[in-house]
Recover the amino acids of this structure.
């Protein structure tokens, strides 16, 4: 793998030349990241009540997932562009390659966060407060790999914060069920991003960055198997706390967990391509769990 940019993406090929580097800066050539943020928010929206929430909330949270994932990528590149220049997979990113200036990056981030603020103003105060915290978490994440071997766990907080925001948007508070889903989401992110981090472990060693992939090494698979067990326990507790759930919850929860087990079994952590494939396939867990919760 020489770059993580999909230059042949339909969106990049059809976009105006001036816009194309901004789309790459926001990783819109790889929309899987939007899905990985949107799905936890959807879990929170559909799991809080017997009836579905207003359609307007779905629109707000899906637009928010798009904007926050895009803004998160820009923030990450603004902070890491000097490091990205030293990593094979990331050195062609627009800020690392100097295709865009830092000023242009800050401008892009300002527009994205401004639009996210407009969405946030349509929600209640509790959700607005959590939204501010979400921006703080997103901003701090790039620094975590400099100080801890567990930036993937911290990323789990940011990626799954939408669960808590969705619940407060509907009820003004956070329940035990919301916390359990939040824990499941954090474990999910730790799972897929640890496999993703194995792509960069050689470069990370050279430039002094930390990751769970480097910390775990050949213990990665046993550890991630334990993560799946933790998720299972959280989902069992969720089922007991929401005793009215149907057989659909059990069936699709089992399918969700099985998809992670299968991915873990098939992944060769020494192969960047295999790790990237596992990362992309991890979204099946999110979709199965969404069906279970509806």
């Amino acid at each position: 793998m020489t770059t993580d940019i999909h230059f042949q993406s339909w969106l990049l090929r059809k976009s105006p030349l001036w816009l194309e580097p901004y789309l790459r800066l926001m990783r819109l050539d790889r929309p899987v990241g939007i899905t990985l943020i949107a799905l936890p928010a959807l879990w929170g929206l559909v799991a809080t009540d017997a009836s579905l929430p207003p359609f307007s909330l779905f629109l707000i949270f899906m637009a928010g997932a798009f904007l926050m994932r895009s803004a998160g990528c820009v923030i990450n590149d603004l902070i890491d562009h000097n490091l990205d220049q030293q990593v094979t997979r990331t050195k062609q990113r627009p800020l690392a390659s100097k295709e865009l200036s830092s000023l242009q990056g800050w401008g892009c981030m300002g527009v994205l966060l401004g639009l996210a603020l407009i969405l946030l103003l349509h929600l209640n105060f509790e959700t607005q407060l959590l939204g501010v915290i979400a921006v703080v978490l997103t901003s701090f994440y790039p620094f975590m790999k400099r100080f801890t071997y567990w930036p993937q766990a911290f990323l789990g907080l940011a990626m799954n914060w939408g669960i808590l925001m969705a619940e407060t948007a509907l009820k003004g508070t956070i329940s035990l069920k919301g916390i359990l889903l939040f824990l499941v989401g954090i474990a999910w992110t730790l799972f897929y991003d640890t496999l993703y981090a194995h792509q960069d472990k050689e470069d990370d060693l050279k430039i002094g960055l930390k990751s769970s992939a480097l910390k775990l090494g050949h213990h990665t698979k046993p550890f991630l198997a334990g993560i799946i067990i933790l998720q299972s326990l959280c989902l069992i507790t969720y089922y007991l706390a929401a005793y009215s759930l149907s057989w659909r919850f059990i069936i699709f929860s089992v399918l969700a967990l099985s998809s992670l087990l299968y991915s873990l079994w098939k992944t060769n952590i020494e192969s960047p391509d295999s790790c990237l494939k596992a990362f992309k396939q991890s979204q099946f867990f999110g979709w199965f769990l969404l069906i279970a919760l509806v």
